[in-house]
Structure to design on (808 residues):
């Protein structure tokens, strides 16, 4: 019997007990209505059994399967056909589905930053009604739950927090010899970095390329590097557009972010310009990196002694912030934020929506975000933060770092045309990183390219989107 | 026989009628074979070309309307593409990549074919080995190469040992050599294609001219340059043209390894068209680009066909002259 199994007798007895309890004065709290999970089951049962088809990358799906099996047992709703597509290729495929108004997929598992584009292309089903019927609540840390909203509606259910946290090699920072040398050289204590500048100084000081130990494990490739740039830019008080949807990248905050971004070159591996996660994650776990900001799931890998040489050797915490704007500001990032979105053209959209809500409950998703092998789904719910299983998987410090960073987490460009905006910026940053473009021209060139995108999509449309973008930005400068 | 039964004066007329009728029959046979294929071709291709044409003269913003509501913009998109420096660079990169990799494939393919065209013991094993790279899926080639080509990876290590120097180029991260890296992989992947074509060509060369040259005391080198290569010219041209066209469309390895990076070093035509269409969702601009590239390829193919015909004519003339000289 699985841990979710409820026998019929038990269910009836429980129901009778709760009903009786309602009549006992002072015991009302014990006789509350059904839990969120039970309401989801009830609403799903009403929608009828079905095998729902979806597009999802297998590393994400595998740990979900036991939870889906339980849902199927209780509701008759399970997974039908699945197309295994990488989350990095999913946006293109999803857009092709949207343009052809295809009912092929009932759900897609994709970067939630695609929500504005997919809604604008008419593909997504709002989940508000299903959420209401299932009595579902996003138990997300901080303002993170709002990342699923656009234009006042909710369109997705997160399965993977994917927030960036700061990683720092504890053994190196706490080494007395290193501490002394650092104090002698800089007149300061060697400690967890609070700003980008401190982080760079620490990375430069502790790196030792002769031992294949590099200061940074941040990504700087064309596809992913831009994610790091946003953190620096936002923390310097920057925002990419003004209220009139004119690009505001080429500003002091923007130039500061480019400068910090490019300085990573002196502390990162010489081949970082083309490295993605398949290259960098093993280097982090195998001890070739001093410090980095990285997706939180890597903590789970680091703390798995079967897969890591650095178990117990890490400090986890808040990503560096910046004083550039005149006040200390921290901004982490969540991208790609994997979420389940529902196809408006699907004949089984209700069933798919309830399955998504089932998977998105904090309680149900604990086994999903703690899978030690398929580490793609990362913790995000308040329930995860207090779960002993999650703490065991990520380490208590890792969980604390995740929770802290969620409080100041921001999205990348949350607008219709997200991929277009992002790729133009990513390309130009990458060109600057490899010396094809002068640093001072990166933002000027990007603004020109963005102006073309804004013209094509329409300034008035994007101005409306801007409200949703601003609404999902964190409301506090520091997590405290 | 029917021909000998005819009166002598009627014979030329009958032959001429028969020739005409035979030619008609051959034409009918050709048409019978070709028409269904042409029909199928038109049925499959015409809607695509028409739809593409529609998109290339209509500005469709995927987020704002359905494709049939797109605004007519005449040739604006073609002008946009032709004045887009990124497109220009993509053309340059693709031409450089296709030229380099085609030459590489051809040189190695020809070399292998030359070593292999005379039968020897165990030849079949070598055939299989030489053809294997072509049977490897390009994406697999890319991912395998990625593991081998790191700066401290096995390829650099082996070359360092062989040369006795510290050989550490950044095959995957240096923007100046990234395209060269993909070209090398293309050569490895597709040399067998040139090998097969050149092997067929070498095997089809008549033995007589070579034997005659040998009897006259010509060296192997001279026989190669003055007998075999001229006889192989149409085959060489075919191998080069087919490989060049294929290389212009190379996408899987470039995308799997670089996705256009580092910087924009590997942003070739297929990569840029893919990005424009499916990353920026500029379907209309992508369609206009595809049309321009298609026209470019048509020009290349037409030139190639002309060259092939010329080569074939000169080869026919050479054989004819040889036959006449033998008769004389």
């Amino acid at each position: 019997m699985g841990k979710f199994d409820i026998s019929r007798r038990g269910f009836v007895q429980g129901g009778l007990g709760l009903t009786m309890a309602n009549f006992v004065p002072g015991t009302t709290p014990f006789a509350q209505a059904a839990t969120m999970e039970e309401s989801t089951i009830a609403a799903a049962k009403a929608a009828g059994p079905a095998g729902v088809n979806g597009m999802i990358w297998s590393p994400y799906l595998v740990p979900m399967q036991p939870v889906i099996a339980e849902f199927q047992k209780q509701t008759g709703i399970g997974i039908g056909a699945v197309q295994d597509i990488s989350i990095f290729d999913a946006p293109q495929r999803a857009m092709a589905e949207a343009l052809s108004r295809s009912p092929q997929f009932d759900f897609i598992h994709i970067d939630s930053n695609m929500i504005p584009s997919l809604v604008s292309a008419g593909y997504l089903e709002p989940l508000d009604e299903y959420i209401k019927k299932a009595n579902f609540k996003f138990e997300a840390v901080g303002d993170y739950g709002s990342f699923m909203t656009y234009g006042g509606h909710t369109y997705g259910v997160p399965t993977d927090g994917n927030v960036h946290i700061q990683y720092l090699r504890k053994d190196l920072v706490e080494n007395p010899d290193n501490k002394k040398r650092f104090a002698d050289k800089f007149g300061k204590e060697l400690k967890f970095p609070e700003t980008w500048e401190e982080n760079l100084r620490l990375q430069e000081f502790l790196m030792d390329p002769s031992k294949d130990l590099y200061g940074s494990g941040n990504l700087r490739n064309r596809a992913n590097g831009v994610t790091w740039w946003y953190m620096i830019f936002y923390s310097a008080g920057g925002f990419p557009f003004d209220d009139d949807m004119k690009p505001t990248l080429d500003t002091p905050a923007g130039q500061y972010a480019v400068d910090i971004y490019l300085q990573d070159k002196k502390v990162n591996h010489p081949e970082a310009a083309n490295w993605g996660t398949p290259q960098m994650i093993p280097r982090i776990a195998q001890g070739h990196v001093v410090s980095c900001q990285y997706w939180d799931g890597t903590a789970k890998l680091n703390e798995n002694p079967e897969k890591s040489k650095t178990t117990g050797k890490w400090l986890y915490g808040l990503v560096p912030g910046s004083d550039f704007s005149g006040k200390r500001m921290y901004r982490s990032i969540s991208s790609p934020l994997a979420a389940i979105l529902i196809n408006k053209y699907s004949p089984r959209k209700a069933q798919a929506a309830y399955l998504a809500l089932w998977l998105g409950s904090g309680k149900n998703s604990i086994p999903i975000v703690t899978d030690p092998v398929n580490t793609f789904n990362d913790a995000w719910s308040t329930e995860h933060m207090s779960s002993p299983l999650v703490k065991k998987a990520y380490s208590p410090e890792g969980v604390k770092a995740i929770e802290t960073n969620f409080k100041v987490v921001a999205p990348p460009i949350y607008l219709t045309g997200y991929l277009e905006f992002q790729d133009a910026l990513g390309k130009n940053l990458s060109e600057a990183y490899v010396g094809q473009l002068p640093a001072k021209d990166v933002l000027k060139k990007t603004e020109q390219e963005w102006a073309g995108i804004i013209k094509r999509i329409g300034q008035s449309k994007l101005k409306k989107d801007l409200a949703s973008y601003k609404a999902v930005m964190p409301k506090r400068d520091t997590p405290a | 026989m029917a021909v000998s039964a005819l009166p002598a004066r009627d014979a030329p007329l009958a032959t001429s009628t028969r020739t005409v009728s035979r030619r008609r029959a051959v034409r009918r046979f050709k048409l019978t074979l070709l028409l269904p294929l042409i029909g199928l071709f038109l049925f499959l291709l015409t809607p695509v070309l028409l739809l593409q044409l529609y998109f290339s003269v209509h500005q469709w913003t995927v987020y704002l309307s359905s494709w049939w509501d797109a605004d007519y913009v005449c040739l604006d998109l073609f002008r946009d593409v032709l004045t887009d420096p990124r497109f220009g660079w993509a053309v340059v990169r693709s031409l450089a990549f296709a030229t380099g990799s085609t030459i590489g494939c051809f040189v190695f393919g020809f070399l292998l074919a030359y070593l292999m065209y005379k039968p020897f013991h165990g030849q079949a094993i070598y055939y299989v080995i030489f053809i294997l790279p072509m049977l490897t899926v390009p994406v697999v080639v890319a991912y395998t190469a990625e593991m081998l080509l790191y700066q401290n990876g096995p390829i650099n290590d082996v070359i360092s040992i062989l040369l006795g120097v510290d050989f550490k180029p950044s095959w995957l991260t240096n923007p100046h050599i990234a395209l060269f890296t993909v070209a090398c992989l293309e050569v490895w992947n597709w040399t067998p294609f040139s090998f097969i074509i050149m092997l067929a060509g070498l095997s089809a060369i008549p033995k007589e001219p070579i034997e005659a040259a040998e009897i006259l005391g010509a060296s192997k080198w001279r026989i190669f340059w003055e007998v075999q290569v001229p006889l192989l010219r149409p085959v060489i041209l075919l191998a080069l043209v087919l490989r060049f066209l294929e290389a212009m469309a190379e996408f899987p390895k470039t995308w799997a390894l670089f996705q256009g990076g580092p910087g924009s070093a590997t942003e070739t035509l297929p990569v840029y068209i893919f990005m424009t269409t499916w990353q920026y969702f500029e379907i209309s601009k992508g369609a206009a680009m595809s049309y321009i590239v298609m026209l470019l390829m048509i020009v290349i193919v037409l030139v190639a066909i002309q060259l092939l015909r010329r080569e074939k004519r000169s080869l026919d003339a050479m054989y004819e002259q040889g036959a006449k000289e033998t008769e004389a």
Summary: Residues 96 and 196 of chain A are 40 Å apart (CA to CA). The two ends of chain A are 43 Å apart (CA to CA). Confidence is low (pLDDT under 50) at residues 1-8, 14-19, 21-31 of chain A.
